[in-house]
Design goal:
Blueprint (H helix, E strand, L loop, with lengths): L9 H18 L7 E9 L13 E9 L7 H4 L19 H11 L3 E7 L3 E9 L6 H16 L6 E5 L3 H13 L3 E5 L2 H10 L3 E7 L8 H11 L4 E6 L6 H6 L4 E5 L4 H13 L1
Parallel strand pairs: 5-6, 5-7, 7-8, 8-9
Antiparallel strand pairs: 1-2, 2-4, 3-4
Length: 275
Amino acid sequence: ENVWRVLVDEGQIEIALLNLSLNARDAMSDGGTIVISTSNIFLDAGSQIRVPNFTPGEYVILEVADERDGISSEIMERVFDPFYTTKGVGQGTGLGLSMVHGFADQSGGFVKIDSEKWRGTKVRILLPRADESTQSPAIMIQQDERQPRSEMDSSETILVVEDDPNVRTAVVQILMDFGCNVVEAEDGDTALSVLADRSDINILFTDIVLPGEMNGPDIADRARKILPGFKVLYSTGYSNTGGRGEFSSAANSWFLQKPYSAEELMDTLSEVRSS
């Protein structure tokens, strides 16, 4: 009760909570309890906080706790590394905790993990308390800053092609938060089927590496036969696919390296739109 308010992006905090909950669920394959809780805390300069640029003050804690295996010290050192995962092939992207860390950092907070082998794990997102007297104006300013980008929704529709459902959900949510019209597909066949039925799609945002017979560039080549001249934004988390130079050199093509923040995504799409 009486938890302080924080000023954060609603879509991003939902995605962070979803990622932490999925990690907790996956850690308890034989069953168990996930506890999600909130609380207030004041941290002074003497607090045992080991994070860069820590600022003393009032924070709200959003905690997700499980009660199973815990995290070893070796793995703990890498949990925030992008695309690092202990899950099997096809079971995880390694983006979950990286995205949570990025969200907390962008919001002026940080993430702490407490874990004991066989005793479970507690992940705490600490977010700075919002100044109640300035919260409403701050929200209005944030909305005003987004307004130029949200003009995309009046004339353009984006097709997002991403095979990982968690990443796709996160990207679609970010785009919708900025007022974009969004259509989604999980593979090449679905993407081409959508393009055949939708003449209003102007931008293709596709992962380069996809399951099945078609990758991102294949989709773009076939799509341009259906809708000549539309714009393509490629993305990947792999370093051996050619990268920015290869995929951004073609006409009406751009490239965005994973992992990226919501801000980086929208800045890149603004560049695509204005070209």
